[in-house]
TrEMBL record:
<protein>
    <submittedName>
        <fullName>CoA-binding protein</fullName>
    </submittedName>
</protein>
<dbReference type="Pfam" id="PF13380">
    <property type="entry name" value="CoA_binding_2"/>
</dbReference>
<dbReference type="InterPro" id="IPR003781">
    <property type="entry name" value="CoA-bd"/>
</dbReference>
<feature type="domain" description="CoA-binding">
    <location>
        <begin position="15"/>
        <end position="108"/>
    </location>
</feature>
<dbReference type="InterPro" id="IPR036291">
    <property type="entry name" value="NAD(P)-bd_dom_sf"/>
</dbReference>
Length: 138
């Protein structure tokens, strides 16, 4: 199996269907890319759930230490962590039956992405959700 991102139309349809995004590695610092990306998605009407240990809140939303700590349904896990940390995040998303994972631009872990796809998750890797949302959905 070789990983390939979904085509633009599939990504567009997916982005228009989601409501709640758990952002793993969301920084509380406004100058960080994760903050800027999450802020745009929040302004687009999506509920942002920060997942970052030792942080109380980001963008006015309470933060959680891990995906397992997030209450309620999550439509997407958006990941801002190093490639060597993706395996554990994918495993947790699969175990929690989260239907999709978006591995941000510049982060590549093909084995983890393939494992997530094989488990039935909608997977996008090495692309920016903010860029794709602005390009495909507005």
């Amino acid at each position: 199996m070789s990983f390939q991102n979904p085509d633009d139309e599939a990504i567009r349809q997916f982005l228009l269907s989601i409501h709640r995004i758990a952002v793993v590695g969301l920084s509380p610092k406004p100058d960080r890319p994760s903050f800027a990306v999450a802020k745009v998605m929040q302004q687009a009407g999506m509920k942002i759930v920060p997942v970052r240990p030792f942080t109380e809140s980001v963008l006015g939303e309470p933060a959680f230490a891990s995906l397992s700590d997030v209450p309620g349904k999550v439509d997407l896990v958006n990941v801002f962590r190093a490639a060597d940390q993706i395996d554990a995040i994918v495993d947790e998303a699969i175990a929690l039956n989260i239907p999709a994972i978006w591995i941000q631009q510049g982060i590549i872990n093909k084995a983890a992405a393939e494992r997530a796809q094989a488990a039935g998750l909608f997977v996008v890797m090495d692309r920016c959700i903010k860029i794709d949302y602005l390009r495909l959905c507005l």
